[in-house]
Amino acid sequence: MSGILLSVQDLTVSYRVGRGQIDAVDGASFDVETGSIVGLVGESGCGKTTVARALTRVIADNARITGGKMLFEGRDLAALPEKEMNALRWRDIAFIPQSAMNSLDPVYTVEYQLNEVLRRRGGMGRAQARLRCEELFDMVGVDAKRLRDYPHQFSGGMRQRVAIALALALNPKLIIADEPVTALDVIVQRQILDQLQDLQKRLGISVILVTHDISVVAYICDRTVVMYAGRVAEQATTRDALLQPAHPYTMGLRNAFPDLKGAASGVLTPIEGAPPNLASPPPGCRFAPRCPFVMDMCKSVVPPPVNVTTSHLAACHRADEAGALRQIAEKAETWMVPA
């Protein structure tokens, strides 16, 4: 790794709804180092996909980037004219969607769709594009004979490999993968993740991996950014985030997934309740209504991110007590809500 490729600083993304607006992302900040894989993790509706799509500026018609910066190699993606932003898409920043079937056109062969990228965006001739198609299929482990097949002729895992090939077409510096293995069975999930990690290391690409699955983050990511209700709750190396979490939400997420060390025993403990409605979020810490360690100040004062270590930040008023809280958080009864 050598330096910061992307620096997201106080990013706010708002949606117009009725006569008001909802801040789906509210002051999010994190960095992506060159050649690293960063996981964005959290429950559905916490803002992960909105961040991912904001980075490409391909967002809903009623959405706007209303604050902050997204510095990609020093250039603010939020402020770039559309023509300059469009030049970066696919060439420098590529996107792997959650559902490859929905992203691939069912009436064209995958070769036609790859050629469209290579020739129109990459400026390649027909022969060069053909060779690149074969090279890309070889990279993702698909027989080049399948280039003339249609998307429906591929299995889910193979379609996801085609989506990865499309993302790699023009040798981008950053790939944003939005839940790339969610719809696949666990065996195929591992194959796709192994393929993605191998390509990332071999080509020196940086990756932002959006997921709600902590086991995926533990398996592949160098750093983890935990989001809750539009805000960044915690960020650290993946090892520190999962083994020494400093935010109660991260502690709860860890409890809700199988033992990361592979233990067969143990009870999975859910976090009771649901994320708040962002149309009227609670004051103070947004996790306070579900937090077993809540204090009065948590309900009124927004916790700023504090340094647990030089590379570990947590937005919690009790971050300095994390060691003691982790021991209590491991007990299932800590998370039980009285009937």
Question: What is the element layout, followed by pairings?
Answer:
Blueprint: E1 4-17, E2 20-33, E3 37-41, H1 48-56, E4 63-72, E5 75-76, H2 82-88, E6 93-96, H3 100-103, H4 110-121, H5 126-139, H6 156-168, E7 174-178, H7 186-203, E8 206-211, H8 214-220, E9 223-228, E10 231-237, H9 238-243, H10 248-255, E11 306-309, E12 312-314, H11 322-329
Parallel strand pairs: 3-8, 3-9, 6-7, 7-8
Antiparallel strand pairs: 1-2, 1-4, 4-5, 9-10, 10-12, 11-12
Secondary-structure arrangement, i.e. CATH architecture of the largest domain: 3-Layer(aba) Sandwich
> What share of residues is helical?
25-40%
Q: Helix segment count? A: 11
Quote the average pLDDT: 92
Radius of gyration: 21 Å
Question: How many distinct folded domains?
Answer: 2
The helix-strand sequence is EEEHEEHEHHHHEHEHEEHHEEH
Q: Class by helix and strand content?
A: alpha/beta
Q: What do these coordinates show?
A:
This protein has 339 residues and is an alpha/beta fold. It folds into two domains: 253 residues, Rossmann fold (3-Layer(aba) Sandwich); 72 residues, no CATH class. 31% of the residues lie in helices and 24% in strands. Helix 7 links the parallel strand 7 and strand 8. The longest helix is centred in the middle third of the chain and has 18 residues.
Quick summary of this structure?
With 339 residues, the chain is of the alpha/beta class.
